[in-house]
Amino acid sequence: MSKSEAACVSARIALVVGGSRGIGRSIAIRLAASGFHIWLTYKGNHEAANQVREEIEAAGGSCETMAFDVASYEEVETALAHRLENSSPEVLVFNSGVARDNLLMWMTRDEWDTVLGTNLDGFFNVTRQVVFSMLKAKKGRIVVISSTSGQIGQAGQVNYSASKAGLIGASKALAREVGKKNIIVNVVSPGFIETDMTSDIPKEHVLPLIPLNRVGRVEDVSSVVNFLCTEQNMYIHGQVIGINGGLAM
User: Are 138 and 179 in contact (CB under 8 A)?
Assistant: First the structure.
């Protein structure tokens, strides 16, 4: 048995979908520090994923990486089905997401399909499998990463806003389905967080809209996700927690 397999047997498992960069990377590292064995998924950036795994292991934690496209039902099933036969993650964090910004009148079908396929279809493809294993285990916590764009909309992001709003609706419905089985479902909705995805947005245009007068950090998000996944006294269920510095109230 490998070291990763041994860790999987002995530790609680947190499946972090989209965990190689930005917010997902910070979430994976924070949950590992809280004692979870990390199943870290990513699409194709092997170097970034391996760096996260090495950082977790250097700090005394354990991590396995899995590369697949969440938008592909077949790839997700191939990657997860066998693992879920033998292990049930205690935590699922769905953080996978892409943006293809454009005004609706110029938006291409590919820009629409790519964003909805990854951000919303990906949620279905992954969560459908994982929640079944959680139901058998009669416990679990699911945290879905949405966006302020999904709460209030954003010009030039009709596709992205639709996908992130869809995640909120799907998560609330799922919370009603599985709450009685001791599975807690919540949504975390970041605002303007400093990541690669937001690097091209001029900060001087955004800061006047944020009452806290600063850009968010990935740690601002991962600390809340960690709380939702680890706090024993938990009565938060089916909620959307905004992490936006007051950008949306």
Answer: no
**Does the pLDDT at position 85 exceed 50?**
yes
Per DSSP, the three-state class of 93 is strand
Q: Which residues are catalytic?
A: 160
Report if pTM > 0.85.
yes
- CA–CA distances in Å: residue 114 to residues 39, 69, 88, 137, 141: 24, 11, 29, 34, 27
Residues contacting 47, CB < 8 A, separation 6+: none
130-165 pLDDT, tens digit each: 999 999 999 999 999 999 999 999 999 999 999 999
Q: Please, how many CA atoms are within 13 Å of residue 165, restricted to the half-sphere of its CB?
A: 12
